[in-house]
Amino acid sequence: MPYVDGFVLAVPKDKIEAYKALARTACAVWMEHGALDYIECIGDDVPFGELTSFPRAVMAKEDEVVVFSWIIYRDRETRDAVNKKVMADARLKGGDMPFDGKRMIYGGFTTLLQAHSP
């Protein structure tokens, strides 16, 4: 079963275009180095919950939007090898990040169940 890296972060609304540019570059880099899929989603229906929610998890401010993304790999071994290459790729070095990386949530996940529509 595939291995998945997942991410949740808050991006200032005035930096969405910069984030989109970064996402396009990151997508190209991950795919070139062996990821199977790369998905970036901008929050559209992400309510602020009373106890927990995506906005609370990343301490999103009024002027920020929540981004939810994931990358799919063949397996954990492939993920580790791909990420090592990605971290060394010059295309992702330097420059200002259009979000606060300290508030990003991320992790690697083993697939429990997978289904596809025909």
What do these coordinates show?
With 118 residues, the protein is an alpha+beta fold. The chain has one domain: Alpha-Beta Plaits. Strands 2-3-1-4 form a 4-stranded antiparallel β-sheet. The longest helix has 17 residues. The chain is globular and about 40 Å long. The relative contact order is 0.32. The model has no long low-confidence stretch (mean pLDDT 96).
Overall mean pLDDT stands at 96
Strand order of the largest sheet: 2-3-1-4
Task: Give a count of the beta strands, DSSP E runs of length 2 or more.
Answer: 4
Number of helices: 3
CATH topology: Alpha-Beta Plaits
In short:
The protein has 118 residues and is of the alpha+beta class. The chain has helices at residues 16-32, 54-57, 76-88; strands at residues 3-12, 37-42, 64-73, 105-110.
